[in-house]
Amino acid sequence: MNSGNSDDNPKFLVVVERDKCTSCGTCEDACPELFELDSESLAHIKGSKRVGNNDELGVETEDCSLDAAESCPVMCIHVYEDGEELI
Ligand code: SF4
């Protein structure tokens, strides 16, 4: 396929469990490159795909995703490196 991205085997996977999100906006403040609140005021990962009610995005560097995950008061942001959960 000619998808033109590395989504098939990313180094890191960033996941938000939107069902747990309390719309506090902390992740957006900590990592506006990746996170925003959507029209439902739930956390959305920019450019992600929706899996169930989660957002998932494969990325090659963790950037500020770990900052966002650590800042989330309900721990509903997760970051995986090579399939291993970092947070
Ligand atoms: S920090 Fe957590 S609870 Fe707050 S908006 Fe982001 S994902 Fe939702």
UniProtKB/TrEMBL annotation:
Residues 12-40 form the 4Fe-4S ferredoxin-type domain. Keywords: Electron transport, Iron, Iron-sulfur, Metal-binding, Transport. Its cofactor is [4Fe-4S] cluster. The keyword Disulfide bond does not apply. It holds the Pfam family Fer4_15. SUPFAM superfamilies: 4Fe-4S ferredoxins. One of its GO terms (molecular function) is oxidoreductase activity. Gene3D superfamilies: 3.30.70.20. Ferredoxins are iron-sulfur proteins that transfer electrons in a wide variety of metabolic reactions. PANTHER family: FERREDOXIN (PTHR36923). This is Ferredoxin. It comes from Methanobacterium lacus (strain AL-21).
